[in-house]
């Protein structure tokens, strides 16, 4: 089941990324691209930890086509995703302190990268953690998340 879901996710990702796929669909990401994405994720993480959700959301594509897939729902659009975070994490106690562990960076196409990892929220009310896959696309000279599956 997990393999079928992963193949479906990769297929959707390739369709979302308009350029011709590279020879090896799972090729290694260029170090400069990887460092750019890591820096953006760090800036975003600091925004979360500061309680600044708009800063946290700067890594996301500001489009109605942005897709966020959570445990029990799918949210479309940058503004709707922002509001989802604001509603779901209304206080510092709910928000906690966010950390990431990155497990895999793979180039799907010249303008498309998938990042797989996990997150951890350290909170007084009980920690929360889980896995994510993020599809990044190079849009208007910037890397942006177009699909977040958390």
Automatic annotation (TrEMBL):
DUF4440 domain segment(s): 37-145
Signal as UniProt keyword: yes
Short name of any one Pfam family annotated for the protein: DUF4440
Domain of life from the UniProt record: Bacteria
Gene3D superfamilies: 3.10.450.50
Keywords, alphabetical: Signal
InterPro entries to which the protein is assigned, alphabetical: DUF4440 (IPR027843), NTF2-like_dom_sf (IPR032710)
Signal peptide start and end residues: 1-16
SUPFAM superfamilies documented for this protein: NTF2-like
Keyword Signal: yes
Transmembrane segments: none
Protein name: Nuclear transport factor 2 family protein
């Amino acid at each position: 089941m997990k393999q079928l879901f992963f193949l479906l996710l990769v297929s959707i990702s390739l369709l979302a990324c308009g350029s011709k796929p590279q020879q090896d669909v799972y090729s290694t990401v260029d170090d400069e691209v990887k460092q750019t994405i890591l820096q953006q994720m760090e800036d975003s993480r600091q925004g979360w930890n500061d309680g600044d959700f708009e800063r946290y959301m700067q890594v996301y594509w500001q489009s109605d086509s942005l897709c966020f897939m959570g445990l029990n729902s799918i949210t479309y659009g940058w503004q709707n995703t922002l509001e989802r975070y604001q509603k779901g994490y209304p206080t510092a106690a709910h928000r906690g302190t966010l950390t990431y562990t990155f497990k895999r960076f793979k180039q799907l196409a010249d303008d498309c990268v998938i990042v797989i990892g996990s997150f951890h929220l350290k909170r007084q009310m009980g920690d929360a953690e889980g896995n994510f896959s993020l599809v990044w696309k190079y849009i208007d000279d910037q890397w942006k998340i177009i699909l977040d599956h958390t």
